[in-house]
Request: fold
Amino acid sequence: MIPFKYILGGLQRRKLRTVMTVTGIAMVIAIYAVMNAISTVMVGGFQATGAPDEVVVQQAGAMMAEFSNIDREAIAYVRTLPGVSSRDNQPLVSPELQLTTVLQRDGDERDVNLRGVTDLAADVYTQVSLKQGQWPATGYQATVGVALANKLKLDVGSELVIENASWTVAGILDSSGRIYDQEIWVHLDDLTAQTNRTKYSSFLIKTSSPEAAAALTEEVNSARRYPISAMRADTFFALQGQMAGGIADIGSFLATIIVFGAVFGGMNTMYSTVAGRRREIGMLRAIGFRPRVILGAVVLESVMLALIAGAIGLVLGAFIALVPMNVPYVAAAHVSLGWNEITGALVMSTLIGVFGGLLPAIQAARLRIVNALSS
Amino acid sequence: MLTKMAPFIWKNIWRNKRRSILIILGIAVAVFVYAALNAAVNGLTFPIKGTASSQILNVREAGRAQVLASKLPEIYVDRVRAIDGVQAAAGVLTDIAIVGTARVHIFLRGVQPDEYRLVEDFIVDDIAWENFRSDRRAILIGHRLQSQLGWNIGDQIDLGALGIRAVIAGIVPPQGVDLENHLLIHQGYFQNNRGLEGQISYIVVRPAPSASPSELRQLIDDAFAYSPITTETASAQEFAEEIVNDFLDFLVYLKVMGVIAVLITMLAAANGLAMSVRERTREIGMLKAIGFTPSLICGMVLAESLLLAIVGGFVGLGFAWTIVGTGGTAMEVLALDRNILTVGAALALGVGILGGIVPAINAARLKTIDCLHVVG
Reply:
């Protein structure tokens, strides 16, 4: 095996070429890592949301909750559907009004999902718990999701201006990573009055089991009593995640293609490296190193180059991730390079190194000693 | 002189086939990324942004994060009409539907036909218009929609999820208005269907010739300043851009990525060219010895670089073309247009020039005697 020092030494020669190649690969890896991180943030929250025993009801054909309008009288029908759980004789159906609102605070401006709920929400949303304070009651009180609260440094008692009115934070909710952590919940009646919207956006129904949820969904969609459509919550949020992910996918797809560009660049460098060291390779062969060892050394040099570049790229990516960004669907997005992204980036770097160096390495291994020595 | 050298330059490029191909491929990748990216942006935004008018004003509910979620009471239209400087005003109720197996997004516009035509005076066949006016269930579709969905005049269509059944009365021909991507439907029928009686999304306004649009905007917003629902008035163009921004905030990052992709390629191309110059030091020395002037050498290297870039650009754009088409393929959201092709070509040339200039100058500056000393 060729000593490590030799391989490292190879990198030190032709500094400019090495630096340029490293810079190129680093930038590619930075983009790749950031795109993956964004994708994770956008999709992750949705995938965790939505239990199989919950059903989401929206207006038939509505693209998003905000564009969904359901007549309020429909609630009587929904409450009497088979399979709806109840508590203290109250059917667990949460009628909601959802809006995207622009939240301005201390120079920060972001789009936040506003959810107007009734007192029933506490019982319907079994996966959401109160970290502090209380559920939204009338009187312009708001309960803020924990991720959003942390991002904007909100606490019980903080004042918020939403939809041209002043609201007081009365509680902080925690849904363990679900999208509700990014939302602001207020009382339905207050939101209705403030925004003049007299229809519901959606219902969230709690049923007794996933099977009951499936049956209820089927009942709503086939009966067509009102122009509403139902979907099991896990499917619903998975689809939302897909929509969000679709956008992120474009980014990831293009980042992957750029990686090819990096591979070509790396290959060029390695070919040139090999060409410049023909004599040296000839000598190594002459003193007994076998072809496959030479191959290994060239590939290893290429991989090391790529890994160094990858590490630099990750650092660069970490800085890029700090730039505040309005990630669609996720108001308090915390784009950071987690283990997933780091591993992905290092794997990608290695692949760039391997593929960039493989063909030149094969060429180097095949050099006939005589030709190499006389060059 | 340089043109005489063309065959020589061409041969030079192909002397090291591998390197040249790699440089070409690298440039092709960057150009492809640029083209595909912008094609995606184009396809997604053009139906909205491409043709919005700058004369017509748009009055919407103030403060909505998603401007398309704007909701105004129908009675506002009469109030707007009464404002000095307003020549015509019409309420519009919008929604988006996803139709067909191709999952085409269509914007529906619920309007009162006569009122609307006074504001947006578009060209349409008289008979088609009359058929639309007189039948409550009739719709007019933009010609782009027609080509995307294959609908024809007289077709009874079912906008499935929305539960709307309609008959196509006519097609809005090409004329550079955003209507070409939309569907006009009777406002009352649409309202009944969606349970939105008495409600519209926004109001479009045609200012009187003598009125100043900027002053009129303020006048309109002032008129509703103390009403329960306040308004925000902007030009139709600005409104369209807001819609796009709402959905595609993320685009900024994709665009930055596109720029970085180009930068990376420039680096790679420059690297490749520099390497090629370095390896031909001896040859360059010989050329200089036989009388090639430094500027000629510089020109040659630059020409090589440009040629490689042009080929790379072709390959990249060509690949983008096959994958994306010009709108209407499997990835129907993507559309490659003349603008993208031109800029893509310019980018390739730019990479060629910027990537090759330093190696070219260096090559020109090489001292003949140093070159000839080099072994191997």
